Amino acid sequence: MKVCVVGTGYVGLTTGVSLAFLGHDVTCVDLDQAKVDMLRGGKCPIYEPGMEDLLAEAAQNLTFTTSYEEAVPGADVVFVAVQTPSAPDGSPDLRYLRGAAESVAHALDHDFTVVVNKSTVPIGSGNWVDAILRDSFATREDRPEGAEFAVASNPEFLREGNAIADTLYPDRIVIGSDNPRSLEVLNRLYRPIINQTFTPPTFMPRPEDANAVPLVSTDLASAELIKYAANAFLALKISYANEIGQLAAKVGADITEVARGMGLDQRIGSRFLQPGVGWGGSCFGKDTKALIATASEYNLEMPIVKAARDVNSRQRAIAVERLQDELRILKGRKIGLLGLAFKPNTDDLRDAPALDIANSLLARGARVKLHDPVAAERFRAEQPELAPYLSATIDDLFADCDAVVLVTEWAQYLELDWSKFIGLMRNPVVLDGRHVLDPERMRRIGYKYLAVAR
Prior knowledge:
- It is a single chain.
- By secondary structure, the protein is α/β, with parallel strands linked by helices.
- The chain has helices spanning 10-21, 33-40, 51-58, 68-71, 95-105, 125-138, 163-168, 180-189, 191-195, 220-251, 255-263, 284-297, 303-327, 353-363, 376-382, 394-398, 411-414, 439-445, and strands spanning 2-6, 25-29, 62-65, 77-80, 112-117, 148-153, 173-176, 215-218, 334-338, 367-371, 403-406, 429-432, 448-451.
- The protein is 42% helix and 13% strand.
- Helix 1 crosses helix 3.
- The chain starts with a strand and ends with a strand.
- The mean pLDDT is 94.
- NAD(+) binds at residues 30, 35, 84, 120, 160, 286, 350.
């Protein structure tokens, strides 16, 4: 099938490259010429493990351009995967989506094209995009006779750092449309993944337990709500673990054991029960905020979702409070933060807990030292005010510190020879912001071990 993907961010690029790998003829369009040039050269503008390898394996079916006129004509499916950042009131800013829909409408020429909302968009956006497409298409003097199109929703459930596996071996695929023909087209597009009939990439073999992938085929509004409801639930699950963690610390319970005991219940499951400094990234914060904003349009409140957001925000403050409780005075203290990206295996800094913790420490008069094995380059560009605090090496970060906080659980940090660094510190205090270090081992080495929920 011929596919156009609008936008080459995390979602658009992963979608386009994966579909090209499966054998579809894919053209990705992005208005950023520098990004397009980089992709044409086989280089990935984002850090995503395996993406450059998949780019190479899919190259014969993949084209990158800045022109809608090159990408859209003849396409069976057009994925719109542009950014939808939060507006000040919490609702998604849809100007990029509107611009993309108008540009797609001025290039449509196929007998039937499915225009797919791949971006996370508010409930009802499918109808809104359909109206924009039809209004813009109607203004064309050169509009081709017989060209038809319909809108569908196909929300993504990708985890940054694991996006390729989540695309090729997903838990489920959700497609929504009020047009039965659109559902048939998308069913055909995803058939190799649904049936797991494709030859896996050389660097990412099919999991042994991979089976046929469930397909949820539904209406537009339901598909849109599934995305928000799923992300809000995961955010709530993390916040719940963190709230229980604060109680565990008060009563002397071990939150890691409590979470393990809860997670063994198959009705609950162990994933997203890890306590720590909370969630970040581009999805949970934005989607929970948007869900609350959407509900308010219908005179509904979302107290559970609001609570999840409040707890998450509090976790970052608790990390700073734990340091203050231990050191008594933060003014003049030197604090090192290990990890800047919001999670391992990505360089994404959006809503990263490290940013709030660093700024809070600076506001209290502390001196900070920062390190990340992957995100440092992006950090310099996106956080120029904090960039001077970056440490070039881990040794530099530990040197003369009064405390070190593990913020992002990069494998590089978990595999450190921690005994090597204790002599570099002024005070050997370690705050485990993710509950991933062995407390007894750290104490044997000589560290004063702290944790957010211990």
